[in-house]
Amino acid sequence: MYEAQNLTYRYDENARAVIDGLDLKIEDGSFTVLIGHNGSGKSTLAKHFNAFLLPTGGKVYIKGLDSAAEENLPLIRRISGMVFQNPDNQIVAAVVEDDVAFGLENLGVPTEEMRKRVDEALTRVGMYDFRLHAPNLLSGGQKQRVAIAGIIAMRPEAILLDEPTAMLDPRGRQEVLDTIAMLNREYHITIVLITHHMNEAIGADRVVVLNRGKIVFDGTPKEVFPHVEELRALGLEVPTTVSLLYDLRKEGLDLPLDALTVEECGDALINALGQKKGSSF
Amino acid sequence: MNTSITIGQYIPLSSPIHRLDARIKLGLTLLYIVTVFFAQNVLTYAMVFCYLALAVILSRIRVSMILKSLKPLTLVLIFTILINVFYARGEVIWQWWIFKIAWEGIFIALKMSIRIILLVAGSSLLTYTTSPIMLTDAIEALLSPLKLFRVPVGELAMMMSIALRFIPTLTEETAKIMNAQKARGADFETGGLIKRAKALIPILVPLFVSAFRRADELAMAMESRAYTGGDGRTRLKPLKARPSDVLALIGSILYFAACAVLGILGF
Predict the structure, then answer these.
(1) How many CB pairs under 8 A join A and B?
(2) What ipTM goes with this model?
(3) What is the dihedral of CA A89, A94, A100, A104, to 10 degrees?
(4) pTM over 0.80
(5) Which chain B residue is nearest to residue A89, measuring alpha carbons?
(6) What is the residue range of A62's domain?
(7) Residue A105 maps to which CATH number?
């Protein structure tokens, strides 16, 4: 889906490289989470996948299309949709269904087809009942789902999400994450999710950790998150489950660090405590 | 702060006036305004009033709502009446110090106030029965001949609808900033005019900064959804004139023409 080859990007000729000789390949239909400290270049990288930013060095290919070639731009924008952090600033129309239709109106989709795709997109994100509401009266999570509906109505092959949950409460965050996971699982849409919340990365296929424009870790969540000390040294946290296991390990309990979900973590704890009871008490 | 009132004044109901094609409705409102200026005598005023009354009844908007739209006019009306009554020319019927009142003055004052009331009541009926989106679409359609002169009509309509969309968002934000400043001891309620105006600066500065940031992000979001300008766009809800709409248009034009002719001839 996406391929960056020796990608370098500077906002200014003399500025430090925000992305520094980065190589990355993202597979079709995968769910990738990009994490990194502020200024690590994760947002800048995502904007390259939508041809918002063009490489100052190296190449970026979107489905084999060179992002630097201007004639590819309309096609690239159709292939990858983007959802931004602040839901208020990406909703264009004063009625939910009109907003979802905005992208389709721009593409020149005929009215009957548009009606069908708008209703379908709203149903998929569970916002069909709100189609005639004013967006400003919705909750943050609902607004963000409307924004996602506006993107999926355009039938993209991939969605880039730039911290879509940063401004939401825990409930809204869960709504948005469930929607993203469902789109990936059921409609095989490639997902690239940028986030600050490590717990959101647990369900992903792959976690890419960036620091100062370079990839530091790249692997499945189970491979990446056990590196607790290295991640903390980069100013990043680990999922709360891993954090708990790590602390208990320091106290001398024999625990794995790759039990990421709450269930796995619980099982690991029961297991370890059971052994301890059997042996030393 | 109640933000629901700021999305235009649209009252969603199901009525023939609501269903009327927005372009025709907007055009008729403009014609109606012109006709009001042609009205000169009791007969023509009565005709214009009957037209408005019929439209209000058909729209199923409550009369109290129409009266509510006239409320902000009170000061203007009082001012108009006073100026016209005392701007006496003709036969003086009452005089005290420099104030004179003439029959002509009273007559003109009455005419002017009725005219203003008819104008405002008619145009608020338009905003009551037409959603902001429909209205901007109608404005775009009516301005589309200007495209020949390279006026970016589509972009202008987009700007209008985005402005409408962001009114509640920015209202909310203003309230938030005001509360934040109040929490830190800012005082917006006391002092003279100048002091109060100065107190607004700490609200306006962050508001503008945030509005620019929003504009930037919105531009990016629009671009990522393939917006490239007004041309070649299709519509989810295209404006469609039905035969009954055209009939209403022709009927109204004939009626307005009759009003104008009667007004000019001065019957």
Answers:
(1) 102
(2) 0.81
(3) -100
(4) no
(5) B218
(6) 2-238
(7) 3.40.50.300
